[in-house]
Amino acid sequence: MDITGIPFFLAVSFGGAFLAYLMNFAHRFLRNAVVLLTVSASAALLFWLGDETFSMEMGGFVLTLGKTPYSLFFAGIVALLAVPTVLFSFTYMAKEERPAMYYLNLLITIAAMYGILFSLDLLSLFIFWEIMTWSSFLLTIHKGGNATKAGVKYFLYSAAGAYAILFSVVILYNMSGSLLIEDVARSFVLQNPLMQLMLAGTLLFGFSVKAGLMPMHGWAPDAYAESPAPFTALFSGALSKMGIFGMGMVLYQIFLQSPFSLPVRELLAWAGGITSALATLRAIQQTDAKRLLAYSSVAQLGYIVMGLALGTPLSMMAALFITLLHGVFKAMLFFAVGAVYFRTGLTDLNELRGLIRRMPVSFLTVLMAIISLANIPPLGGFVGKWLLYESLIQSDHYFLVIVAFFSSTASFLYVYRLIFSIFLGQEEKEFEHVKEVPFLTMQLPMLALAAVTFITGIFPGIVLAPISSALTYLGFPIQHDMWSMSMLFNEWGNRMNLLAMISVIGTVFLTGFTILYFYRMRRTRYVTTKDIHTSGEVPTENENLTYAINFYQPFERAAHPVLSKSIRAWIDWIGRSVSELGDFLRHIYTGDGQTYAWYVVLFLTFMLAAGSWIL
Amino acid sequence: MKKLLAAFLLGFIGYYLYTAFAGVPFGENKMEVGKDYLETTVPKTGAVNTVTSIVVNYRGFDTLGEVTVLFLAATGLGAILFGMKGKPEDKHREPSSILTTGAKALFPIIVLLGAYIFIHGHLTPGGGFQGGTIIATGVLILILGIKSFHANHALLSVMESLAGITFVVAGILGLAFGKNFLENILPLGTPGQVLSAGIIPIIYIAVGFKVGAELAGVLDTLMSTTRGEE
Amino acid sequence: MPELFPLSPVHYVAAPLLAAFLLPLVAKLSRSFIKILPGLTFLYVLYVSAVLYPQALQAPIIEQIAGWAPPLGINLYYGPMAGLFASLFSALGFIVWLYSLTQMKQEPLDRFYILLMMLVAGATGMVLTGDIFNLFVFMEITAISAYSLTAFLREDDKAEAGFKYILIGSLASAFVLLGIAILYSYTGTLNLADLALNMDKVPLSVRVIVFGLFLVGFGIEAEIFPLNGWAPDAYSAAPAPVSALFAGITVKAALYALARVTILLFPFAGSMALISILGLVTLVISELAALHQKNLFRMLAYSSMGQVGLAIAALGLFTAEGVYAALFAMINHAIVKGMLFLTVFAMAGGSATLDGLNGMGRKKPILSLLFTLGAFAIIGLPPFSGFWSKLSVLTAMGQTGNYAMIAIVLATTIVEAAYFLRATGRLYLSEGNPAEGKTPLSAIAALAVLAAGILWIGFFPGSIDETLTAGAQDLLDTAKYTEGVLKD
Prior knowledge:
The complex is a heterotrimer of chains A (615), B (230) and C (488).
Chain A (H helix, E strand, L loop, with lengths): L5 H18 L4 H21 L5 E5 L2 E5 L3 H24 L6 H19 L4 H19 L5 H31 L4 H8 L4 H19 L7 H8 L2 H11 L1 H14 L6 H25 L3 H22 L2 H32 L15 H14 L6 H15 L3 H26 L15 H20 L2 H14 L23 H22 L33 H11 L3 H20 L6 H22 L1
Antiparallel strand pairs in A: 1-2
Helix pairs in contact in A: 1-2, 1-4, 2-3, 3-4, 3-10, 3-14, 3-18, 3-19, 4-5, 5-6, 6-7, 6-8, 6-9, 8-11, 9-10, 9-13, 10-14, 11-13, 12-13, 12-17, 12-21, 13-14, 13-17, 14-15, 14-16, 14-18, 14-19, 15-17, 15-18, 16-18
Chain B lengths: L1 H21 L9 H14 L4 H9 L1 H21 L16 H23 L8 H18 L7 H24 L23 H28 L3
Chain C lengths: L10 H19 L2 H27 L2 E4 L10 E4 L1 H24 L5 H20 L3 H19 L5 H32 L4 H7 L5 H18 L8 H8 L2 H26 L3 H22 L5 H20 L4 H29 L11 H4 L1 H15 L5 H15 L3 H25 L13 H19 L5 H12 L1 H8 L3
Antiparallel strand pairs in C: 1-2
Helix pairs in contact in C: 1-2, 1-4, 2-3, 2-4, 3-4, 3-10, 3-13, 3-18, 3-19, 4-5, 4-10, 5-6, 5-10, 6-8, 6-9, 7-20, 8-10, 9-10, 9-12, 10-12, 10-13, 11-12, 11-17, 12-13, 13-15, 13-16, 13-18, 13-19, 15-17, 15-18, 16-18
């Protein structure tokens, strides 16, 4: 087999999964070695991947695999996150049960993501899509307990999305007689516009479920919160991006020529904007670190969809840039929260506090990540968000700019809460014995990703080059001087035009710190955590009076009218109604033989009557 | 109300079935198959009794199936009633000595009649099913007439098995002789003789034994369950 | 041997019959024969399949019982479709026997195995025969074995379920028999091929009545809504190996009969569309009814009905692709549902509830994995067999332009996923101790064969392509059927 071919690549990825499963019965070091080798090998093979496509027939359908610049960019994200994820898992999962299943499913998920990306036809895309879904479902329920419910929910949302996709795929196949995306695209434009709208609509709906776009985001908070932390990093960072990949493909490879393309994209952009705003507000409410990050992920995916849907070269660039960066910093955050959980067994922000000296590396990771998330230069997040604003303004979406800016700003609130509740504040006795996590398997992945945010912040050209070839593949007119599209970059485009910005921002910060230092720090006063005003009431022992309680109460009061209505509740209501309908229908089967005989006789009567009536 | 509705529905279905059957053209000769049977049975099968030739030969496979259905009914009954014991009853009166003696006297005659009927199945009306049933009624008389009577289950089951095996083997022999399943492999003989019509009498005798043994077994199983005996 | 006993399709019926009659005799010699003989029988019919089925793919084997050419005598028609079913039934029979070896302990075992063999032989006879009355006889054989097996465990509720089954099943028999009687009185023949040529003797209004009778009669056994009331009770009452056979064999045989009769005798657009619609209704109602089911066997029963509904919906299209898909769905369902029934029984016993699955992932990891595999396959997740069968159903529906049907099937699949994954999730709750108790080797072997089937079809769906295509053609090409049967 050609080692630069896609079949070999997928064989390594999937084969490694099963090998690791078998090796688990030998020794765990052997297993870990296989796991690490598999993901690194597939990451390395990405560089040598040849251009030739590969077809095979399966069940009467021709499946075609091949790489495109667009898929290669996403594959890069997967590879970038997969290696730290497995590394982080080694120690993290050592305490957990059924490690063999965990690694099997993890590697299958990773391999399936590659499969999705390298599918040139809709059926193989769907096949890998479903493999990814069930393997990630199994990972989500790995912990048992609440995770089971969250996992089932995740799967059902995903199934709704996946079958929407399949619905379209079957009809498209019927129309074009081929599954290849390019053939489908060719015959797609010949359909009547309403049909086009329906087909593209179902496809977009299906992919947007995975991306967690509102209103189909209901699975995300639970699934992210309950799945094992290393996997959550991959889940939010790479797996949900498969939805973005699919949406981009549908919007620009299939749907673009349709008269409905523009309104649909406008709608999507708005959905993205609303998603980012509402999810940010929700994130602020959360008291669980992982749920907070989950909502934050939904919000960030909202930005990406916004950029993706606008469809200007600049907005696409922004979307893809944030796609990568969000993957990186969200993985860092999930890792860090996972590290804290690993040492303390807690993710509740009301319980954790003052870990900064115990876990300095984790603190640093979170700090870097939230700087990136909050779009503060010089880290990578800034570049993406800037490009997004710029593209929104250039395409005259002023209201969306306001929405995006609002949620960006609001996101300060939750990232602050995150870092403050966990790391800052006074050290507590119960955390006295907490140590930093091991270096090689847990710190290293976090630090490596932190370095990535730094490098992409200073040298965005490294990322922009693959993005530009991806966009060229999608048909966007990217000139060689794509850098000139944004005022952000220097004229060579490989570096940010940072000097001015950094000096401005640096000055502001330095001034601020200086003032704070002289004004506040000197008057530092040590108090115990119980030393909080209680308005004359004597607090009982069960009352947790940590400052983190009701952290944003005033804000929540203000946002209450928006947040009191939950879309998730509506969808849950639909689920419950179906379930009740099922319960009702179950009573058709009364368990009484006579009733069944009645059914038979009534049915026969009906058939005879209907038959003679028709005649 | 429910009964009224049931009556109405049955009437409705009945009406349709009536119309279906009422439309059958009566007396017209549409029965090509039936005509064929009537005209060619004797030379082709050597059986004087056309009905028997149809049952055992033309549609012998159905008969094998019917025998199996009976066998299954007996087996199923045995399975479901396995190990089940009724209440030991005392209500039944002792059979009178007339009944007891009569039963003993009648039994051989009944068996003989049954045997006659199934042995002559290919010649006269009657056959294995009828003969077997008559034999089983002989057993029923014994069960009713003699309180302590028990059919010999082992014997019955052996008889049943051997008879069934005979039927199937008779079929398979057809295959073994390069013909079809259940196809006649014996000389047809002179129509009207007892030893004629090839394998038909053999099969019918087997059927007779089988049916007799099965029905007797079923009766005995039911009786011993209700009598509270094993 | 081959010279002495030339293999022919009749062996499918004759061998189990012989074994069934022999069983009481050999049981007297040694009790161990009771278990061995059925296995040998199933192996033998599998051997028959291995020899005959490839021949049937070339040209249908038509056997004239007792040497009478149809329509005088009864004939067996062993074409690609019948061959496929007969082989499938034999294989399932063997697997269920293998499983029962250690898992079935309820006495009287000799009777259990007789009934089991007859269930398989009867269903095989139904698909083999070319004579409509003979079809009825085999339907009776199947049904009577099924009734007894339903009540085999002899508890009150099992007996009740068996009784319900008898009640509804006798209605089925009565209606089918009435239909046959009407047909016979108009045409004077019972041979299916001959009937097909003589249907013009039957007035249209009568044909509608007969179709109604057959639809109800076969529909009861094929679990079409609303005729399937007996099914949930019977499935949950019968011993699990038997339930596996109900799902895998009896339903399929009835469905085959319905399809054959419809395409030969009532090839109207209306009757076909009706079957399709009934299939969809069955699918929707059964899947929804399963959603709230706590008793696992009842849940599987509803799911069975749903899967059969799916197959019926595809079958009702009566296009080459539709029948292909229906056959695929039936094969897949036979394998997967069989495996699920057997796995659940091995895992949680005969009265398994959803709660009974809690923490099984630790207690019985292999069985849990198998259940998960089965659940994924039945939902239709790739790369397992169910995906390809569902996909073929969908593309078949797409080809006829029935997009609404596709949407309905997909929507029910979500419902199906809901209850199957809820059960799967239970397995991995952290309860119980790691690896408790051992599952006997014979049970694991039986399940492994089924699991291998799921994976094999999942990865190499092309391997059964020829089989399914030939089967679909065989059903649809009625001219070839009648000519083949009545050639002399």
